[in-house]
Amino acid sequence: MSETPEPYDDGELSSDLVRAIGKQVRLLRERAGLTQKELGDRLGYSEDLISSLERGRRTPQAEFLIAADEVLGAGGMLKAVIEDIEKAKARARVRHPAWFKDYARLEREAVEINDYSCHDIPGLFQTERRIRALYEMRKPLLDEETIELRVASRLARQEILTHWPPPMISCVIDESVLRRPLGGPAVHMEQLQHLLRLAGLRNVELQIMPTERTEHAGMGGSFILLTPKGKRQVGYTEVQDSARLSTDPEEVRILAARYGSIRAQALTMQESIALIESMLGD
Prior knowledge:
alpha/beta; 12 helices; 13% strand
């Protein structure tokens, strides 16, 4: 038998749709008198994959649905949902660029996030108007539907700031970023005020790297250290429309050491708040 494609696994697809398909597969399998292992053997999948699919933890590819429809005598019931899955996958690609999805999935599970930003305000800290302005100025141009979906997706990511228990978040932002009025003066002032509100959260530690420093450990660019629940810390870097997620212990260790130096060189949290307040008063 030729190798069978693994069911598509995308955390961005509708969980309700995935669970509904999983229930259909389970009911059809039980009606046919097959165990998960027996169905997996007939289709070329492992028992674990069939179990994950039935519990709504995996989304099946079209090839799986076509084969399962025939083996289980579904009469086209499973084949009929292929179009819905393809549409959901297309919407997921619009919500988050493909190069960002791996990080977005890990971010939802994070218990700790350490972010050094020398280019822009971290996405988790951006206001809605700033997010929209950033996407509207993107080149090549994005259509209005894509802009609205991307704005909604970034705002949805920010829910981790307030859900319980929230991740511990430390962030160092270059002062130059705070002096760049992207979106215009009103949007910029709103963004600075929002940073002050976030700095008041118990799980957020915000620091500013002043432009006057004669030594700067972050000249290599922005990066994020992220610790998912129950997993090892990973490193994330991004440039243009490409990204790199590192799980190599030595690479992550180097980024962590660099981040420690950056925090030591930056203003204290109290000094950082005072600087932002002075910018608002200018």
